[in-house]
Automatic annotation (TrEMBL):
It is a multi-pass membrane protein. It comes from Altericroceibacterium endophyticum. The lineage of its organism: Bacteria, Pseudomonadati, Pseudomonadota, Alphaproteobacteria, Sphingomonadales. It comes from the Bacteria. The chain crosses the membrane at residues 64-82, 141-167, 179-202, 208-229, 270-291. This is Transport permease protein.
Length: 299
């Protein structure tokens, strides 16, 4: 009791004394409000990216191989319906024509599926704080989630391309590798950003499914994956040219075949390549501003 009384009676050291002692010991603390992490939080960004990648790799049968099998079934059904390769489009058999579009469609749909799940699952399960609390800026948060979605898209595209390579009716070639890489990445990035915005907006999985069923799927199927738009009426040709998915798939097909609906030369496709790049910059800016504002994430 006496020791406790002496402790209570002893004067309490002022906080400035502790700071002065720390400074004398060589410790330097930044002023209040100044972040301890400057520049890019590389460790945090890498951790978020690996968390998202491991999440879909744990169920890779569903997230990687199942989409590849589904896409291959599209190829089999349409090839049989079109006469088992006797019909030619753009100077190549139908199966060879449709293969790049199916690869691109699988990549974009799975990029959307991955990023649209990230924040939505956290909001529903009440674990969104685990993503928002770490010392990551809004840009780093967006980059981590989008990069993981692109990784899944590339894996799905590789699995589908492997299946196409093994399919006897398809001749896989690379006439313009730059177009394959550029449009593949731009298409995956566009759908990843759309998925992240959807994940912020949605409050339940039904909202996510509605965007998938009424926006992503129709734009994918009506983008010239299975046909050339020259076969459409002038009105529907005009509508198709307002569909960004059309330029992604046509540009990706140009990379494989050297021909597409938007041109048969590098110069003709370059305008579409710059256009989809500008569209992704716009989507990225919108997504960043929404994350910055905490729209539907912070209450």
């Amino acid at each position: 009791m006496a020791d406790q009384a002496q402790a209570n009676a002893a004067p309490k050291a002022d906080s400035s004394e502790f700071v002065a002692a720390d400074q004398q010991a060589g410790n330097r603390f930044p002023p209040k409000g100044r972040p301890l992490i400057t520049g890019i939080n590389r460790i945090g960004l890498w951790t978020l990216y690996m968390k998202e990648v491991r999440r879909f790799l744990k169920v890779q049968t569903q997230t990687i191989w199942a989409p590849a099998v589904t896409t291959l079934l599209f190829l089999v059904i349409f090839t049989v319906a079109m006469g088992r390769g006797t019909r030619e489009i753009l100077g190549v058999p139908f199966a060879t024509f449709v293969a790049p579009g199916l690869i691109m469609m699988g990549m974009m749909q799975n990029a959307f599926a991955n990023s649209s799940f990230s924040l939505l699952a956290g909001k529903i399960q009440g674990t969104i704080i685990d993503i928002l609390m770490p010392p990551l800026t809004e840009a780093e948060l967006m980059i981590g989630i989008v990069a993981a979605a692109i990784t899944r898209a590339v894996m799905v595209g590789g699995a589908v391309a492997l299946a196409m390579f093994l399919w006897p009716a398809v001749e896989v070639m690379a006439a313009h590798p730059w177009a394959i890489v550029w449009f593949g990445l731009m298409g995956s990035t566009m759908l990843a950003l759309m998925g992240l915005i959807t994940s912020m907006w949605a409050e339940k999985f039904d909202h996510n499914a509605a965007v998938t069923n009424f926006l992503v799927a129709p734009l994918s199927l009506l983008s010239g994956t299975f046909y050339v738009i020259d076969n459409l009426s002038p009105v529907f040709q005009t509508i198709s040219r307002f569909n960004p998915f059309f330029y992604m798939i046509s540009g990706f097909r140009f990379g494989f075949l050297g021909e597409s609906d938007i041109g048969n030369t590098n110069h003709a496709v370059l305008g579409a390549a710059l256009g989809v790049g500008a569209l992704n910059l716009l989507l990225g800016f919108v997504c960043y501003r929404l994350l910055k504002s905490g729209w539907k994430l912070k209450s």
